[in-house]
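Job type: complex structure
Entries:
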Amino acid sequence: MHYEKPNVTVDVVLTTLIAGRLHVALKIREADEPPTEKGKWELTGGFIHTNEDGDDMAAAKRTLRAKLDFEPSYLEQSFTEANDHRDSRGWSASIVYLALHEPAGLQELVAARGLQLVDAEDDGAHLPANMAFDHKLLIAKAVEKLRAKARYSTLVAHFLPPQFLLSDLHEAFQAVRGKVVNPANFRKKILDEKVLVEMEERLFSKGRPGTGYYLAQPIAYFDRTIA
Amino acid sequence: MHYEKPNVTVDVVLTTLIAGRLHVALKIREADEPPTEKGKWELTGGFIHTNEDGDDMAAAKRTLRAKLDFEPSYLEQSFTEANDHRDSRGWSASIVYLALHEPAGLQELVAARGLQLVDAEDDGAHLPANMAFDHKLLIAKAVEKLRAKARYSTLVAHFLPPQFLLSDLHEAFQAVRGKVVNPANFRKKILDEKVLVEMEERLFSKGRPGTGYYLAQPIAYFDRTIA
DNA sequence: ACAATAGTGTCTGTTAGACAGTATTCA
DNA sequence: TGAATACTGTCTAACAGACACTATTGT
């Protein structure tokens, strides 16, 4: 018995945090195939290149590099969406990656490459109506996982520059979790977890300068939940 | 530009809990292709059948039904392992499913179908030396996710019959988490979460009969961690 | 009566959350 | 000096964890 092979792609849900709201990078689809999807908004992604991609992560990175000339601060496999109806060309599996980056860098990128950063809050209510394929669903699933993981890890630090104030991290946490946390308590908890490293120099913002911190590792997990 | 399509399979890490230790169902691989893998121990799985599988979950269920005539108590997508070296036949993506079931039913199945339930503890140290493909790695990853999820969900209840005593659930929790939890405190926490429904009748075991419980939903998540 | 397991009440130490207040910068 | 933000100390309520105790079955 012989079966057609599915198509296999990677798609990257590239997110950032602007004005306290999660945003996702989208661009207008230019490919002619399938004709129904041309001109709609899509995630960055593409087919696995079996002759050059060692694995799925490599495919995600190659795609980002080739299409955007970009490497995000954080990138991880999130889930796989695979069925017979997501692409009119036939059975298709998309390995979906979640990427996080700080807004300044992404805004630059977006300006240079003709992308848009779209508000992904409110269950996708502000996404364009004409989204390609099932990308609206992919975004919804990835964002939900992001919010969950933010609760017990340093994930959201990737929405900040490499060095940041605790108040910045605090703000990012609150925004992603949608909850207010007392600043003093946040400070105590996060420092207790020993996942941040103190900078030598002070970091200057609008008021009194504060201690700068950076992540000890790309991601660390807490024993307790933090917000 | 044209690229070969990867092969796409589903593999099911079918687990249970025996004598307080996680076990996984394995069978001897009979397929002739690739020759190097024949006669080794493997997970239940197979290629996506693009003409009959609506999606990846359907493919996992079909595989379990066709090869084992079995439907597990719990089944969910866990992660995808995709690279150019896991299968000598070429670029391959496996969508890995995690399945849980209670030991009695699984032991019956295993006896009838010539499978083995193998101890999956100690980082796979007790798995057979001759595991097919990268299935040892797939098991390690799936088991790690299982242990993590057990901490904040009712997942482990699927290692028990549909109706169970709190002491059974307590034992399962301890085994999977590898930690001792005070029975009284476990009782308080789990009942507080309101994820269990009381049975009408009492459930009889060795000593004093106790209140039987069953899951309100296939899986529920806790606000706090439980063990 | 005793073994075995189910289930309750309560004490104590730790943590979460709220909040008041001090410290250090720029304008 | 005042606005802005960083940071600390402390109080209280809630919760985790430990433990002693009672309850209900079979043998």
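Summary: The mean pLDDT of chain A is 97. Residues 165-167, 183-184, 187, 205-211 of chain A lie near DNA strand D (CB under 10 Å from a C1').
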